[in-house]
Write a structure and sequence with these properties.
Blueprint (H helix, E strand, L loop, with lengths): L2 H10 L5 H8 L3 H6 L6 H11 L3 H4 L12 E2 L2 E2 L3
Antiparallel strand pairs: 1-2
Length: 79
């Protein structure tokens, strides 16, 4: 999903804003924002859980449909 699509999903959710998700799940809102730019394991999982959208739908380039992580801290796994 594109960053704008994820932010739209946040705004349509019960949380409405990233800081509300950050507070509920005790994670920094800065790390939630960083997840849009680079892999952030915990932030990605928090956003997925809060929005009820599977990780592979939010970040198909980072996660496989079986839940396996494809990207690790800036390193791409060879296909």
């Amino acid at each position: 999903m594109h960053e704008a699509d994820i932010l739209a999903a946040v705004r349509k959710s019960k949380f409405r804003f990233l800081p509300a998700i950050a507070e509920q799940y005790r994670v920094s809102d800065v790390s939630l924002r960083a997840a849009f730019r680079r892999p952030q394991l915990r932030a990605e999982r928090v956003l997925s859980k809060a929005l009820g959208i599977p990780l592979h739908e939010l970040w198909p380039e980072r996660w496989s449909s079986n839940g396996e992580r494809l990207v690790r801290r800036g390193l791409r796994r060879a296909a």
